[in-house]
């Protein structure tokens, strides 16, 4: 291969100047079903990983979490703003619960699960803010449940993602 062939190869590999480049991909969107599925998979893995952790996963005090259950009749009767409010309030309550569990459980064996759960809650909040949904009114505090173990806390996070968040996205995201 001569010098001209090498130059052509280099230009192909590095990109030809002046040639239109595809726009860089933007940040991920919750409207991409792969994103919420990834969150759900991570939450399920964390829940399974903590399932048999024993007494070192017991919380010294109960922690308030949102009710992850969905009453489908009630959900269908809510307007878009109320649905957004329900999800935003639940996400905020879950982030606060995971943060409190991180403060209470100092065992290094559970720290990775708590760090991942907190990262999920924070990423979810950031991505929810980027959705084309009506601005929710100030969140009213949901009637909380109380959990006393890390597996239960992670189970609530997983059910919340699979239930209310997934329903909200089905209603909010363009198809």
Q: Can you put this structure into words, describing what you see?
A:
There is one protein chain. The chain has six helices and two strands, in the order H-H-E-H-H-H-E-H. It has helices spanning 3-14, 33-50, 72-77, 80-104, 111-129, 150-172; strands at residues 58-65, 145-149. Helix 2 packs antiparallel against helix 5 (111-129), helix 2 runs antiparallel to helix 6 (150-172) and helix 4 packs antiparallel against helix 6. The protein is mostly helical. Strands 1-2 form a two-stranded antiparallel ribbon.
Number of separate strands: 2
Largest sheet, described in full? Answer: 2 strands, antiparallel
Overall geometric form:
globular
Beta-strand fraction estimate: 5-15%
Rg measurement, Å: 22 Å
Rounded to the nearest angstrom, the distance between the terminal CA atoms is: 51 Å
Mean pLDDT: 80
Strand order of the largest sheet: 1-2
Order of helices and strands: HHEHHHEH
- Could you name the ranges where pLDDT drops below 50 across 5 or more consecutive residues? 6-17, 20-24
Helix-strand makeup class: mainly alpha
Query: Helix fraction?
Result: 55-70%
Number of helices: 6
What key phrases describe this protein's structure?
mainly alpha, two-stranded antiparallel sheet, globular
Kindly summarize this structure in a few lines.
This protein is mostly helical and 175 residues long. It contains six helices and two strands, in the order ααβαααβα.
